[in-house]
Amino acid sequence: MFKAVFDQCPTQIAIIDQEQSLSYAQLNAYVNSAVNHFQNMGIQKNDTISILSENTTSYLITLCALWRMGAVVCLLNVRLPDKIIEAQTKYIQSKYLLKSKNIDYKNYTLHENNPCNTFSINQIATILFTSGSTGIPKAAVHTFANHCFSAKNSNINIPIKRGDRWLLSLPLYHVGGLSIFFRILLGQGTVVIPKNKNDIGSLIVLHKITHISLVPTQLQKLLQENINITSLKMVLLGSGPISENLLNEARKKSWPIYKTYGMTEMSSQIATAHKKFAEAKIFSGNKVKISKKGEVLIKGNTLFKGYLQKNNKIDRSIDSEGWFATGDLGSITKDGFLNISGRKDNMFISGGENIQPEEIEKYLCQIDGIQNAIVIAAADKKFGFRPKAFVQLEKKSKLKTKDIIYHLSTHLPKFKCPDKFFLWPKKMTNKSIKIKRSDFKNLHDIVLLS
C-alpha cells in the first residue's frame, strides 16, 4: 500500500526533521532496510510489536517497515512510568518492545528492494491505548482501513497535496498525531518533525508549514509568540473544549482555525469545520445520531475494530445495530453540525439538580482574563456534591471571585455557580497535551482566589 505511494512521487520530500530531509524514494529504501533488520530479529507477520519513542524519522520508518511486514504495532505513551509500560506490553502480548535506541535507521544496511508480505486493508494495523481521561486506558484496535478512510475523509474536507507541509506537533501514540502521517502519505505531502515541543513556533516560520494540528494549550502558547503565520492554510484545533476567549484571540491574529471533534475509537475526526471558525460538521463518511438520553452515538468505516481483551479477543463494544456509544452528550443541527455539551460521566447531582461541569467552564472561559477553567464535583454534606472551579488567569488579570460570580449569574442559575474558585495549580501547566479532570480532584496546596 505505502510502496505504491512512494513509487508515485519518488523525488517529493516525505519527511523533514532537524537534521535532514528524506524523499519518498529514500524513505522507501530505509523502510526496506528496516524490514531486513526486523526480519533478522525474528519479527513475523501478525506479531504484535510495541514502540516507545518520541516522534522521530526513525519512528516513522519503523512504522512503515512493520506494517509492510504485516505486523501489528502498539504505539506507547512515553510519559507513562515503566511499570505501566510493562503491564501494557504484557496485556497485549507484545513480542518485542522497541525503544528509540533500537530503531535508529542510520544503523541499518541500506537496501533498495526487499520482498515483503502482502496484507489486506482490513488487517489489524495498530493498537492505541486510550487516554484514560474518564477511567482505565483501553487498548483500541484499528485496521488499515480505519486509518485510511479517516485520512481520506479529512483530505476531502481539508485537501493535502504535494508541497504541503504538516507539522507533527502531536505525539504518534495519540491518534491525532498518527492520523497526520496517514493524511500526508495519502496526499503525498511532507511531514515535518519538531525536535521538541518548544520548536513549534520557529518551525512554522522556518519550514513554511501549511498545516498543523494543535490542542488548546498549544495554541495558547503560540498566540503569545506573535510568529509569522502567512504560510499556514489550516490549524486543526481539537482534543477538548475550546474557550471563546482563545478563539477570539486567534481570530484577531488571523489564525486559520478549523475546530474538530474526534476520538481514538473513530480513528481521529468525527466532525470538523469546513471553513475557518465554523462549527464542526459531521463527515459524510461517518454516521452520527443522538440517543434518547442525549448521548452521541457513532458508526462508519472509521470506527475501530474494538477493545483488545486479556484473552486476546476483541470486544466490539457496539449495540445490536452497530452503534458505538461515545460517552459524550450533544446535539445535531438540521444542517449537520455537531455540538458537544460535555461528558456523560462528568455530570453530577447537587441537591437534586443535574450539573454539567462543561457548561460552567464554557461561561467561565468567556470572561476576559480567564484562559482556562476546570470544574469538579466536591463532596458536600448538605447537597451531596457542589461545583468547585480552578481558573487559569492571564498574567495581567486582576479578576476577583466576586467578578466571576457576577458574570456567571447572568448566564446560570445560582445552584450551578461554584462555591469556591481556586487558582490554576502550577503543576498542572504543561502536564500533557490533554487536560484530565481527574488530575484536579485530589490536589493539595491549592490557592483560593480572593
From TrEMBL:
SUPFAM superfamilies: Acetyl-CoA synthetase-like. InterPro entries: AMP-bd_C, AMP-bd_C_sf, AMP-binding_CS, AMP-dep_synth/lig_dom, ANL_N_sf, MenE. GO terms for biological process: fatty acid metabolic process; menaquinone biosynthetic process. Its EC number is 6.2.1.26. Keywords: ATP-binding, Ligase, Menaquinone biosynthesis, Nucleotide-binding. PANTHER family: ACYL-COA SYNTHETASE, MEDIUM-CHAIN ACYL-COA LIGASE ACSF2, MITOCHONDRIAL. Belongs to the ATP-dependent AMP-binding enzyme family. This is O-succinylbenzoic acid--CoA ligase.
